[in-house]
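Quick question about two entries, pasted in order.
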Amino acid sequence: MKILTRAGGVLLAALLTMAGCAPAHPPRTIDKPMTERELATRLLHKMDQQLSRKSYPFTLIIGDNRFEGQQSGLDWSLESVDQEKDATVRIVKKGEHIEVTRGKQKEKLTSRQFGLVSPRDYLQLIKSDMKRVERVSTADQGTEEVEAVLSAERIGNRLGHWMGGPFEKGAAQQASRKFQIRARFQYDTEQEGFNRLIIRIDPKDGEESESVEYRF
């Protein structure tokens, strides 16, 4: 069932083949820009706010595929939209197990088999492996966009440990040197959490970028 692994494993496949709470800050005016350290502090604070939410809806967009989702603690669910009824894909994660349903077909997988899918998974990855933060834009009405560049080396180590087996012995680390990962966040400076998160994989060999978008 190719459709069953396409949604959950798309980012992980691309990675391998394309070879504590900080204090809030008041919004700054554009004529007194925040330093990179201040931007990073604010971004980490926003991540903590989002991660502290016990339950929230989100939309996941991968290419032309759109899913409506719900994060509930460590568990989550996704359902495809704009599909014929018999082609609707529903994915539910409870504990370490994931059930994928497409029409009358069902398949059970583990979190390791399926890959990273939920916004919580990615926020934790970004928080741990953030290398630097850059401001993208500041809108007039308090909406800010920043971009975090992630450490490919640390992500390679983390993916290798997560995948186990031969990947832990260097395959993931070698693959990680062939791409750069950027995470772009959009948020309101005076509200908690995020409006949007876009994770983009940029191959260093000039091939087309891949992206995954979350809307909250």
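Here is the second entry:
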Amino acid sequence: MEPLVIRDGLTIPANHLSVSFTRTLGGEDAATAARKIASTVELRFDTRGCPGLGPVELRKITAWRALRADRRGTVRVVCGDFRSRARNLEGARELLKRVINDALDSPLEPERPARRKRGRVGLIKGTPTE
């Protein structure tokens, strides 16, 4: 697989991208049942350790809701719009590129403070500590 060029100065190396193919789950009509080839593409990007990403870019990408990064920093994009694997792979690469660009262009939102737990506030015993 080739490296993915996001923008000038940011390229995702091929060893940080992984791809898997699955079957499209559809109805039970004859046209869908006859198409048993695994053509839906799942493209995963491991953000941890990517050489082109600084700490600010990494936080923007992992915090962007459309990317839905998991705890390990892996971003997953699924494309099954076309009938062939090659078209779905290109579609997934373009989708990943577009969403990462959107994430990097957005301002970094400040993190919301954690909700105070009942035990820390003292509500369990009935007397607030603050």
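Reply: The mean pLDDT is 81. The radius of gyration is 21 Å. Hope that helps.
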